[in-house]
């Protein structure tokens, strides 16, 4: 079967995974990325077994060379650090990983160059729109040039230029920002450490810490309300955050204090695009379904999408197949992530006590629907 030439817009985790998955199906592609090179983002990422399994299927086990396999996830209470629940992260066939995001992206980029050719990723190419002409699709760039392709994969994230052709609803601002920093592991007093993911839940806020970089560093994510997505700066000082985390346990305050300055990321989501593959254009990842990071699934779902697009390529009913396979799942994950906005941030009271009791007795298999392999196309 001859495949159309594919243009992938965006060299994030979704776009790069798509390029590798396409190569495995014998399809050639070029990836266009607006940045002049890959950003050296030192922050961490959790790669859950459902996503890791897809990367294993693509032969990318080496991507996890510097990753940690945490034994479990602990949910703790904000004020007194008591454990509300412990989740065993070792019960899945493929590990749950935590790692530097840049290590994953670099491994994917190398895999694209190996499988699609050394020039397959073109940096400094900002897409401004796509025009589906029926027999081909044009990708336009900000330097007034255009390229033709048989299929465009829009993997260009939350503010996707490709998704503009689908007229999506604007992303919804959640009223919260996530502040991120990476600390030396020695800064991790208290329960945070090299073998677990820890999340503290409290009124209108929560905080997550997990090990990365072979256990040498700790990734810290501090979520806090903010009426406006924009702030005075793209970073925030630990002192400002500590004011917001007054009354929280010293284990949490100590981590925030050790961070000094944290990157500030406004959190958005949107209901998934109902028909993510139209004609010669398909959306994956945040371009199709930006979600809140409360289940740590945005990149994982982008990876699942990327593999599903490649698996659909040979099918005459590819658009319908892709939507039927992916939409029920991304809807469920987006909704569950959105629910975290309320459930994680409950003020102390009867509803919080009910939540804590439910967490304490949750079955080990409660997240198998998420961490298990997604339905094949
Ligand atoms: C605080 C926080 C923590 C998170 N933690 C996790 C986690 O632990 N696990 C997890 O699975 N997910 C996590 N996520 C979600 C995850 O980061 C995103 O869902 C994921 O990066 C989406 O991948 P993507 O490839 O779809 O888009 P992106 O990562 O946004 O990549 C899009 C790429 O397209 C490029 N681009 C954009 N516009 C254009 C254009 N016009 N032309 C050309 N190129 C363009 C961008 O430069 C970028 O390289 C987290 C998110 C946040 C905010």
Poorly predicted ranges (pLDDT <50, ≥5 residues)? none
The ligands bound in this entry are: flavin-adenine dinucleotide
Distance between the termini: 18 Å
**Bulk shape:** globular
Name of the CATH superfamily: FAD/NAD(P)-binding domain
Question: Which architecture per CATH?
Answer: 3-Layer(bba) Sandwich
In round numbers, the mean pLDDT is 95
Strand order, sheet with most strands: 5-4-13-14-15-12-17-16
At the fold tier of CATH, the topology name is FAD/NAD(P)-binding domain
SSE order, as H and E? EHEEHEEEHEEEEEEEEEEHHEEEHHHH
Which structural class do the helices and strands define? Answer: alpha/beta
What integer value in Å does the Rg equal? 21 Å
Largest sheet: 8 strands, mixed
Helix content: 25-40%
The count of strands amounts to 19
Query: Tell me, what is the CATH class?
Result: Alpha Beta
Short key terms for the protein model shown above:
alpha/beta; single chain; FAD/NAD(P)-binding domain; binds flavin-adenine dinucleotide; 9 helices; 29% helix
Topology:
Blueprint: E1 6-9, H1 13-24, E2 29-32, E3 44-47, H2 49-57, E4 72-77, E5 83-88, E6 97-100, H3 101-116, E7 121-122, E8 127-132, E9 137-141, E10 146-149, E11 151-154, E12 172-184, E13 196-202, E14 205-212, E15 217-225, E16 235-237, H4 238-244, H5 250-259, E17 261-269, E18 277-278, E19 281-283, H6 298-312, H7 318-343, H8 350-360, H9 368-371
Parallel strand pairs: 1-2, 1-11, 2-7, 4-13, 11-19
Antiparallel strand pairs: 3-6, 4-5, 8-9, 9-10, 12-15, 12-17, 13-14, 14-15, 16-17, 18-19
This protein binds flavin-adenine dinucleotide.
Residues 9-15, 32-35, 45-46, 126-127, 155-157, 161, 178, 180, 221, 265, 285-287, 293, 296-300, 302 line the site of flavin-adenine dinucleotide (FAD).
